[in-house]
Amino acid sequence: MTDRDRGDDASDGAAIGDRLPVAGRRVTVMGLGTREGGIGVARFLAERGALVTVTDLKTEAELAEPLQRLAGLPIRYVLGRHEERDFTPEGADMVVRNPTVRRTSRFLQIARSTGVPIEMEMSLFLRACPAPVIGVTGTKGKTTTATLCAAMLAAWDPRTVLAGNMGITAVGQLGRITPDTPVVLEISNWQLEAMAEHGLSPQIAVLTNIAEDHLDTYESFDEYAETKRSIAHHQRPGDALVVNADDPEAWRAATSTRARVVPFGFGDRGGDGCWIGDGELKARISGVEVTIPTPGGWPKHRLENAAAAAAAALLRGAPPEAVAAGLASFTGVRDREETVGEVDGVTYVNDTAATAPAAVVASLRSFAGRRVHLIAGGADKRLDLWPLAKAAQEAGSVVYLLHGTATPRLEAMLASVSVPTQGPFESMAAAVEAAAAAAQPGDVVLLSPGCASFGLFRDEFERGERFREAVRALMARTEAR
Known about the structure:
Helix content is about 35%, strand content about 20%.
């Protein structure tokens, strides 16, 4: 696929500053956060001559680490509060909001009402990027799919760029992207909000699936689902939508895009697409069929991710042998069904990114036939936890509950289907120790919470790190025996 005109700020071969003119503009970055997104966009803007104000409700002490990473840059900070002036024409020419900032924020409403444009890193990136973009979203599987797709493309072109919601700032990669560079982005629903507001979509959009999530933020599941489908709303003829044909909510996107629709799933629909067979993927792109072997032992949901990734990589121009090489080299993604280690015959798996029940269901099915000690629970996102409880019952699991606002409701559901529980625990170390004490050789101790992390942990990635630390402590004690 070829690049397309993105307007006056995006011409092939132009400098980043020409495609995204920010020098001398007053930019308020709302929400620095503790991960790479806010840090990356603040650095990008400051290094290109923008007059940057970073404002965050967290204090200087709470943000010590990200502030250190921005040390030396000409940035004004407003911490522990927001000031209205920074969201009006008096103090800002543009506001860039962090994905963690709710779109309904009073300060964003002030910016809108006074005519100050609101951007996010992803909307800035898509305008400035000179190359075609593969954008991947979905309730679950988007990180794995994006990583798989990038591995397939990298086997064809080592310059491939992978960035986005997995913690790699996208704008920070612009300096190494040419019009021919393969680019893969993982895109969250928060980032999609900004893209939809500015009428932006990637040239190749991938929608893995849609299930309940983030209902603490959206008015309804329908609103959340429509946000996910919006990845395809502003595609153009000649673009492509790679979409899960077996997921009814995701498939609805096929009726609301001008792009070419390329399905993936478990059944051949007769046209272009990518289908999962017995130990292989069968892809048909522009009528040309190819067969790609898949690694043995992969669970259903990872095969779906592989089919979506392969379809996108083939559409971007990667040859079948590169797609096969990318599949063969894939060893998993940190924090997503990540095997941390084995202690006394018990396997410890970190799936902290499973923050919705649907993801826990998929993870439990990955270990069918093995006894699973499930660490679950946490902060409430107003999701239906019943699928998690039923999956734990069907798997014969014992559940070790982490303290959190959703945990009492989950505990009651588990009790109603006679799933044994322990806890709630006030620390990850305590939960891991309890699971380790009960586990037998051949068992799995699985962190797959089905809930948000807030309360006990800064975010789900800190939760995963606490799990790794607890397992490493077990391993050290075992080695010392």
